[in-house]
Amino acid sequence: MKRKTYSKLMLVILLCAFTILAACGKNNGAGAGESQTSGASPSQTTEASSAAPEASKEKVTLKMAMWDSNNEFISFLQEKVKEYSQVAPHVTVELEPFKGDGDYLQAMKVRSAGNELPDILELKPNWLNDFKEQLIPLDGAGFLEKNQYASKYAVDGKIIAVPTVSFPELVYYHPSVFEELGLKVPTTWPQFIEVLTKIKDNGKYIPYAMGGKDAWPDYPFNEFIPHIVSGDENYLSNMAKQDNPFGEGTAFYQGFKQIEELYQAQVFGTDPLGISWDQATVLFSSKKAAVVAAGLWFLPTYEQKTGSTEDIAAFPMPYRASESEPLKLMTFTDHFYGIASSSKHQEEAKAFMEWFYSPEVYQTYIDKAQLNSTFEGIQSNVQFLKDFYAQNQAEAFTYIPGDAEYTRISNAIQLDVKALGQDMMSGKKVDDFVGELNKKWAASKASK
């Protein structure tokens, strides 16, 4: 009897042991897709397994240079790039901000000459040809797959920088001022000058806040008008094929004659050349000036200064001569990021850009910048912009900079259309300088 009891007891013990071993074997073989009720989750296990290699990698610091006039946005971006260290613990990204693109460009040119560019640098589209030898090709990179503009700005057939934002160029105004003075939104160039003249004659407000001391704020006129008057998005590149692109009958001459009409109307206050852009924005934000023109990027600056967007609206710059012509809206693509060929950490820079342009991260960038997205499937959340498009019907016209030949010739003759705008504000006429420009252009074109 005891023997039978002993045998049964041993059988139970063996069965229990077999059951335990089988259970352990099943748990040890659990796949990544199987859930477990205890222990580390698959994601934690993956993170733990990848942490050791990351920790053993050599520490890398990536330098990233950019410009922006909005302090709040600069602070946001400084904090945002720090988050990358959570993805790649061995990489630190240091942001070097500049307040203006003029100082920024000068600094990058100096560093380029000394082979000391930052690992990642920001560029305007018309600077790409100047830096093409200092940037690596990005063709084939994953972050370019859904970018809607990158190929349009390729240089010599290669994509060397990523266009990060797109936005319309706008004329901002105070609806309360227009209502007070009984003004209607202008839709043609003559109407635009007429509205500004009426504001000037009233005497209560500065019609247009120019900021001509800095030169660049006249770009909505001196840079954009000939381009949009031509009706050709590749106008600048096609200029390089002409021997005399500035004289009568050209888009440049016609456009600058329009600008001359505006400057002669003297609607920029008593001293437009003595006021900086910052001072001009203060005049507009404090409602001492009725109108100012800038890209959509100006809206956050205005909101930061005033705390609201209650008394600001916008309309397309009415470049057209009459309502029988289409109303075109200049659209600018900006903030191109590229990787310096002198960088010792090009692969790390590419990995950072993959993260930077990932949908989750890029969405926060666009929302904070309050600009249009350049990537398919990602939309900006800017109510002001949605309202603008709902209230204004215009054809989008994309600004495309000149090609390498245009860049070569314009650099050789030191063509600066914004500086010409300053000269025109001080009284210089179009016929005073187009002849000389044609001579210089033809000579430089022939010298190749």
Describe the model.
Strands 1, 2, 3, 4, 5, 6, 7, 8, 9 and 10 form a ten-stranded mixed beta sheet that branches. The chain has 19 helices and ten strands. It is α/β, with parallel strands linked by helices. It has helices at 2-28, 42-56, 71-82, 84-87, 101-113, 175-181, 189-202, 219-222, 225-230, 235-239, 251-264, 277-285, 298-306, 346-356, 359-369, 383-391, 404-412, 417-425, 434-446, and strands at 60-67, 91-98, 120-123, 162-173, 206-208, 289-295, 313-316, 328-339, 372-373, 395-398.
Task: Jot down its keywords.
45% helix; 10 strands; alpha/beta; 448 residues; 10-stranded mixed β-sheet; disordered N terminus
SSE inventory with pairings:
Elements: H1 2-28, H2 42-56, E1 60-67, H3 71-82, H4 84-87, E2 91-98, H5 101-113, E3 120-123, E4 162-173, H6 175-181, H7 189-202, E5 206-208, H8 219-222, H9 225-230, H10 235-239, H11 251-264, H12 277-285, E6 289-295, H13 298-306, E7 313-316, E8 328-339, H14 346-356, H15 359-369, E9 372-373, H16 383-391, E10 395-398, H17 404-412, H18 417-425, H19 434-446
Helix pairs in contact: 3-15
